[in-house]
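Instructor's aside before we start: the two examples that follow are unrelated to each other. I chose them only because their records fit on one page, so don't look for a connection. First example below.
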Amino acid sequence: MNLVEVFDTLLPKGLLTYKKIGSKASLPKRVAAEKQDKQNRQGVLFAVREKAHFANGQVKGYILTSKESLLEDAGALSHFTPNVYRFGTYSDEARTMIKGFSEENLQQINTFVVDIDTKRYTVNDLLLACLDESVGLPTWIIESDRGYQLYFVLSAPLFISNKENFRGLKVAKRISDNIKRSLKSVEADIYCNDFGFFRVPTKDNVVYVDLNNTYTMHELIQWSMRRDDDIERPLFVVPTKKENPDLTRTDWFDALVHTTNIKGETGVIGRNNTLFTLALIGFAEGWEFERTENFLDEFNSRLHNPMGAADIKATLDSAYSGKYTGPSKEYVETLLALHVKNGKEFTVSFGNRAWYKFKKNREDRTRSHYDEWEQDIIDYITAEKSVSEPFIWRTQKEMCEAVGIAQSSLNALLKCSTKLVKTITGKGRAAKTGWTTVKLFMEYIMNLVKDQKQAYRKALVQVVLDWTDELEPVAGYEELMNYVHQLFKRDNQNTAAEPLDGSG
């Protein structure tokens, strides 16, 4: 197996071919590749050296920007994101913790990956299931200690846009869901992240490969639509006119929160998923952060195998991050089937709330979405700021009262906002909290730079004037003095001086 061909098949576009610094390629190759790379937008991949580096809601790894780096490091990596993201950053000063691998940051989708978390099936079993029950043979299969990962690579990337509320991403997620469901006979994990981290292909772990088995988006969409027709499932859910139930008063919710033997096991939909689902229900019902936190603490304390406090905090932060608008019906049904053993069957209904697509008018909601709170704060800052500086100085409590936002919600908003700036000066009782927006702060900086340039030019002109007062009259002296005075006049009256030669 040729790894260069594997990664060329996976990444025909989206990454630089060679490293910008320290490349081992010859100069002619680098020049030719650079011309080719400029024809497409370049993004990044995220890579991890050990599976243990996924912990406590954070990921320890680094960011790859070229195929050359990927090829050099492949043997030392355990997982990576085979789909390309627009950008990536580090969340700590040591540059070890990575962030940016959210679906909204996806630049392009190169492959769909199916996780088989068992070794009860042979490679031939997997291939037959793909041929008989799914879209076709995979491009390659990776074997791990616990199972397999099947890569279905696209012949050309699907580029993701935020137009029409990420419609392309929703279509891709439905295709991914259908591929995973079609391989139910070999126990494909339908809850595995569609476009997250997966095993890195190496010469040691690839047990099947055929680089001719690639797929176009057109044929995958057509196949996925046929799958949906078979189960009468439309691509976008249309809400019914049923009244919305209070989820916390349903029989299935009551049964779930009174189940105490839910375990936290790797690869099992269990304790962590239950706590996250309950947190999303609290969020969807409009509970404040503290109320949901107290509820989860009480539920967790009753479990035979409770979750740690740090993990609960990370779960709550994720549920209230603004990335989700409510729980998944399928997750709730799976949790009930796996863990509630009272012989009763439950009908799970969310009424007409299609969480991931529809949003009520703001006046009909008790809880505003983060983007609306963010705009409220921007409007408030813009109206209150003085001409002399971009910051307004308010305590966090004053800001919450002015905008009508809970303090916990404000803290969560500040973690994910890219438009607000908060600063604290001083210590203790003398500390002051300043608030502004990125736009206002940039305008302020640009004005400072402009003022400094004008002051510098004015000082320079004055130095020239002082110097020319000591000159003896010579040829051209009068012409020079006229030009200097024009400069001085322009700096004081914002009028342009004419060049010495009279040209425009």
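Example two begins here.
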Amino acid sequence: MKLSTLPAITRRRTPVVAATALIAAAALMLTACGGETTMESAAESAAAPASSAAAASPEAVAADFPTPNGGELNLYNWTDYISPDLLKRFESETGIKVNLDNYDSNETMLAKLQAGGANYDVIVPSDYMVAQMVELGLLQDVAPSSFPNGANIKPEFLDVYFDQGRQYTAPYMYGTTGIAYDPTKVGAEVTSWADFFSPDSPAVGKIGTLNDQVEVIHAALRAVGAQPCSLNKDDYVKVEELLAGWKPGVAVINSDGVIGRMASGEQTMHMMWNGAFTRAQADNPNLQYVYPKEGITLWQDNFAIPVGAQNVDNAKIFINWMMDPANIGEATNFVGYDNGITGSDAFMVSELSGNPAVVMPEEAKALAKPVPGCPVEAIDLYDQVWTNFKK
């Protein structure tokens, strides 16, 4: 059904997270200098039962923290988002065998968990998805901030809008979603989402985009002069028209394999996460990363233990191990994103610390903002636009 045939929607009050989100944005941008879904406050809407760890003191948690005793860990993570060598070292040091499965969007991960039958011990949801999963009662309250290495969490990553006090999650990586392109192949400067979504782009036929409903529609809303999570139906009519005109020139809608496609020149312009960009750029120095002038999403990914996990102790051991500065530093060097752990900067290679795609330039900081989950009315419109786009 086209959006133009739908009735107008009624504006409702957005959850009270704006002030915290702005604080989080500023904090994340300062951190960078050194080194999608209805959502209520995580603290107010937690539906999962609290564990004894949540109420215990850090000292008590440390004293009672599980020790490695073999077994397995089933990790469900974004594709190509953790170093295989790092996982091998974890296995060697702990005796815990890691079974890795991958997904390409938060929605894919959520759908698989909600469908049942998925046996995962650690998952890696993004900020807005954490809040939704807490509201749905899908995450265990194990208080990762109280783990022995929880003290390493950077202060600005502790009271985040989606998980106050880190009761459900530990920080993994954070970054931005922007535009990567090869100016030697595109032949024109790209500075905006309007350039990216232009049906007359010189990159027609070589354009790729993420298979990510939230990121694509966030960006398209910005391109038509609106803001993410808009409740104005007319904005989505414009977005639908924009995407319909743009789609014939899109070669790939896929979040997997982006690094290889951009590095090889198979695609010359792609919506891209900044860490993936740095890895593609290492093989293709011509690539440039754009902070679109209409604005850019600042996001954060996190470790969490889903309700129903079979190896909870091993999950805690893994999350705690990943909060060690040396271990998360090695992870940063592989994925090309900065992280939320104090002391990890000492382990960051210079190629990352000096790359403006990783450490945001001053002029880009005002463009990067976290986007808390949208109200239900907006998500319904996102769903309809995305369904029509993917037909």
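The chain has a mean pLDDT of 86.
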